[in-house]
Amino acid sequence: MRYYRKKTMDTLRKENKRLKERINLILDSPEGKEYKRRKTREYYREYREKNRDKVREYQREYNKEYAKI
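Now predict its structure.
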């Protein structure tokens, strides 16, 4: 029984490694780089909209501290 589990785990590890390599291959292509860039912009846009008050408060505090310099 242990051998069966080990064999299954080994095949799952190999498949996981193969899929990660394939994802990296796709993300390293020009289309993949553009996709990653677009997704990060969308994520930050959503973050800024959701945390607008926190961002503004941080900007005010930052300006108070570093506007003196």
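The mean pLDDT is 91.
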